[in-house]
Write a structure and sequence with these properties.
Elements (H helix, E strand, L loop, with lengths): L3 H6 L6 H7 L7 E3 L5 E3 L1 H6 L7 E7 L9 H14 L4 E5 L4 H4 L8 E2 L2 E4 L1 H5 L5 H21 L6 E6 L3 E3 L9 E3 L10 E3 L1 E3 L4 H8 L3 H9 L2 E5 L4 E3 L6 H7 L7 E5 L4 E4 L14 H10 L2 E5 L4 H16 L5 E6 L1 H7 L12 H20 L4 E6 L6 H13 L3 E5 L1 H4 L5 H13 L14 H13 L3 E4 L1 H12 L7 E4 L19 E10 L4 E6 L18 E2 L5 E2 L3
Parallel strand pairs: 3-16, 3-17, 4-15, 4-16, 8-11, 17-18, 18-19, 20-22, 21-23
Antiparallel strand pairs: 1-2, 2-14, 5-6, 6-14, 7-12, 9-10, 12-13, 14-15, 22-23, 24-25
């Protein structure tokens, strides 16, 4: 059996100019990055503003497990399936981070016969967007410390600098650092730390900005520190926003690539959904809606994280109205949620499957709270038993939810036609009455409690002292009307990764609240979730190699 990278290496890609031509774009609309990658110019994007929007379909999932769910694979295969049915469809995905690519998860370009290509370049440096984010972020961090060194004219308290540095790798040793050591010539000593780039506020701003000037304004609003008398210090006061925007002038442009079946794909922006808002860029999504009749996009991890943030943050800010939501589930993952160990997933176990279905059931209920029609895609694995698949389908039907078998990993778009047909049927027959979950004008505590109660199923929220102090401070500063982005483990509806299925009788603990004034939301950090991941005992990097002919192995 071929690996994902071997399948991708055998792909018959079309020149990106041909992919663009199919969207009604010319060479003048593109900025080429070789033969198979291109960015769409901002002038072209502006020229599309009068076109009617297509329909937006979100792909989300149950809570992920080590058994795998295949959300990106399903997104790609569904779009290929729509094209096989004659629809003008394209897919919008996030860009993979080097952290998981070399760490735990591997890449994020789909799998099997449902991939975006060139897969190796997408999973590595791609068009340099994440590097631009890293440098724009760290430029601002450097200017903070330079201001301290140059007499501290903004009266910043070195113990209240909140803008950490970033790097796009998983490196737990950088979570907490001390900088400025070595004497006066080397700066002011203070505690600092690193987050992974995809958790950066710069990444969030990239993905929520309408254009370059909107990005510049958002950069100016970033709060980097507080003075000795607790007043906020912004990037604008450091005069950093212009240079930061210059570094991001190309990164804001959506990246055009293709699937294995030559379906057009935008891959742009990559915030994690467990520690950020988990969606590709507004620019890419809105541009795709002008170029295609149906746009398929994804939101990271389970619907409790990615979908909630897609609805409550991205759709709120960008005035998007999704037409339908596909929830991806696998028999294997549902059995894990029902208590089966990974080593035993090959055994038929209808009782565990029925118990684990409760996780899918909760996600179906959650999507309904946003007024968006939901349907389920059962992502098929070769080891699945027919009785198990039949049980999942029957339980979905008993809930009145449309369900389709998806076999896109093995068959590509052909294996996604059934799902595509049911997506089209859902769009045609079930109108979307999209609404956000909460009014952003409500108190911060109430907004967090609403998400925890309605989406996670928690009985309540415990706010640690530090979190309550931050909430009061931000509210007093005038930021109380911002929506909420909760950082939480992706593995459970609760903030305890070990509580699988549909936990009951639990509370969510909020230990810290951070302000992302430029992005336009507050980040409430729950449980023990980290904004800088660590590497496992044997990282995927150990299996990745390249030979003298440039042939890559081990990348997936």
């Amino acid at each position: 059996m071929l690996t994902d990278i071997e399948i991708a290496q055998k792909a018959k890609m079309l020149p990106v100019l041909e992919i663009a031509k199919g969207l009604g774009l010319s060479e003048d609309d593109l900025e080429l990055y070789g033969k198979y990658k291109a960015k769409i110019s901002m002038e072209t994007i502006k020229g599309l503003s009068d076109r009617e929007d297509g329909k937006l379909v979100l792909v989300t999932a149950i809570n992920p497990t080590p058994a795998g769910e295949g959300k990106t694979t399903t997104s790609v295969g569904l779009t290929d399936g729509l094209r096989k049915l004659g629809e003008n469809a394209m897919v919008c995905l996030r860009e993979p981070s080097l952290g998981p690519s070399f760490g735990v998860k591997g890449g994020a370009a789909g799998g099997g016969l449902a991939q975006v290509v060139p897969m190796d370049e997408i999973n590595l440096h791609f068009t340099g967007d994440i590097h631009a984010i890293t440098y724009a972020h760290n430029l601002l961090a450097a200017m903070v410390d330079n201001s301290l060194k140059q007499g501290n004219p903004l009266n910043m308290d070195p113990t209240r600098i909140v803008f950490r540095r970033v790097i796009d790798l998983s490196d737990r040793a950088l979570r907490n650092t001390v900088i400025g050591m070595g004497g006066p010539a080397h700066g002011v000593p203070r505690q600092d730390g690193f987050d992974i780039t995809v958790a950066s506020e710069i990444m969030a701003i990239l993905c929520l900005s309408d254009d370059l000037m909107d990005m510049k304004k958002r950069f100016a609003d970033i709060v980097v520190a507080y003075t000795y008398d607790r007043k906020p210090v912004t990037a604008a006061q450091l005069e950093a926003q212009g240079a930061m925007t210059l570094l991001m002038k190309d990164a804001i442009k959506p990246n055009l690539v293709q699937t294995l079946e030559n379906t057009p794909a935008f891959i742009h922006g990559g915030p994690f959904a467990n520690i950020a808002h988990g969606c590709n860029s507004v620019t890419a999504t809105k541009t795709a809606l002008k170029l295609a009749d149906i746009v398929v996009t994804e939101a990271g991890f389970g619907a409790d994280l990615g979908a909630e943030k897609f609805f409550d943050l991205k759709c709120r800010f960008a005035n998007l109205k999704p037409a339908a939501t596909v929830i991806v589930a696998t028999v294997r993952a549902l059995k894990m949620h029902g208590g089966v160990a990974k080593a035993d997933l090959g055994d038929e176990n209808l009782a565990a499957l029925e118990a684990g279905f409760a996780n899918l059931e909760k996600h179906i209920e959650n999507i309904g709270k946003f007024g968006v029609p939901a349907l389920v895609a059962v992502n098929k694995f070769p080891t699945d038993y027919d009785d198990e698949i039949d049980l999942v389908i029957k339980k979905c039907q008993d809930m009145g939810v449309e369900v389709a078998l998806s076999d896109v990993w093995a068959k590509g778009g052909e294996g996604g036609k059934e799902l595509a047909e049911k997506v089209l049927k859902t769009i045609a027959e079930k109108p979307s009455n999209f609404k956000v979950l909460y009014d952003e004008k409500r108190p911060v505590v109430e907004k967090i409690e609403t998400i925890a109660r309605e989406v996670y199923g928690a009985d309540g929220v415990i706010f640690e002292t530090a979190a309550m102090k931050s909430i009061k401070q931000y509210t007093d500063m005038g930021y109380g009307d911002l929506p909420i982005c909760i950082a939480k483990t992706q593995y459970s509806l609760s903030d305890d990764a070990s509580k699988l299925g549909r936990p009951e009788n639990f509370t969510i603990s909020i230990r810290e609240v951070r302000l992302s004034a430029g992005a336009g939301f507050m980040v409430a950090i729950s449980g023990n979730v980290m904004t800088m991941p660590g590497l496992p005992k044997r990282p995927t990097a150990c299996n990745i190699d390249i030979d003298e002919n440039g042939v890559i192995t081990g990348l997936f």
